[in-house]
Fold this sequence. Notes:
Layout: H1 4-12, H2 21-29, E1 34-37, H3 44-49, E2 58-62, H4 66-78, E3 83-86, H5 92-103, E4 109-112, H6 114-117, H7 120-126, E5 131-136, H8 156-163, E6 169-173, H9 178-188, E7 194-197, E8 205-211, H10 216-226, E9 231-235, H11 239-251, E10 256-259, H12 265-276, E11 282-285, E12 298-303, H13 310-317, E13 327-333, H14 335-343
Parallel strand pairs: 1-6, 1-7, 2-4, 2-5, 3-4, 5-6, 8-13, 9-11, 9-12, 10-11, 12-13
Helix pairs in contact: 5-7
Amino acid sequence: MKNIEEILFKNWGYKKFKPNQKKIINSIIKGKNTLAILPTGGGKSLCYQLPSLIIEGITLVISPLIALMEDQVLFLKKIGIPSFYFKPDSINQNINQQLDNCINGNYKVIYCSPERLNNIYFLNKISKSNIKHIAIDEAHCISEWGHDFRPEYRNIRKVTDQINKNTPIIALTATATPKVQEDILKNLKIKDAKIFKASFNRPNLYYEVRKKTKEVVIDIVRFVKNNKSKSGIIYCLSRKKVEELTKTLSVNDINAVPYHAGLDSKTRSQNQDSFLKEDCDVVVATIAFGMGIDKPDVRFVIHHDIPKSLENYYQETGRAGRDGGEGKCVLFYNQADVEKFKNF
């Protein structure tokens, strides 16, 4: 068997693993059911991508995030790993060729959403493929106690049993309280799983809470100006505020783009690519942005409004400093925002 450190350096360019990655990868290679609870930026995707180069057959990745699937497939293709993702809204005619490619063993890693996996036509075809390993990303979505609960996730085990009951599973999440952890293991029927939990402390992140005044926009402009040419994300609660703040930043010679669910998919994709390719410095966004976006050098995350939960705040600020470099996390707070949430 190939040395996994050699594979890591050759394909990903890293000389060493992040905490627990090596143990998780070895567990997967040995065919063990595995639950990995790693912090945002802890390198979850590598844990199932690297074993795909060692395990014979296909790794099936179930993810709720189109942006993540698209981003990771592009990366895997760049490093020579044949990969594909099935869009949730693709019609049967469009995916037939790709499903045949899976059956013929033309891919090493394939991604799909839980909704796509629940499609009978898709399931019948994909079951004919040589799937040897199943990875479930954002596994907290399985649990009714998880902050991103998604009902389709509750059906994953029933569906994967139709592919192969004996296929080992890895469930990965950055957020799992003991209750959520228990629910994941129970629902996936992997109570024998090896559990790995890394420290959630990110010493390279600097957290600051500032009082939110009527001059909050001026404060944000000043902060971004003081961090000139650095990549950053600014989160706002409403689409309207996203658009207003983006215009204000642009007027102040800050290269910023908006991102929210009200924009058409082409514009969202263009703005996301602009940020990833460093054609702009700042993305002003609702929480629709960021899940699974792999940009290691985000240097600041600003919250114009308080986030919906502590888990959301941890995930959103965790997008800063993924390369181990500095990450400044600034939250603007006032009681009026708290009252808004209470009214919601």
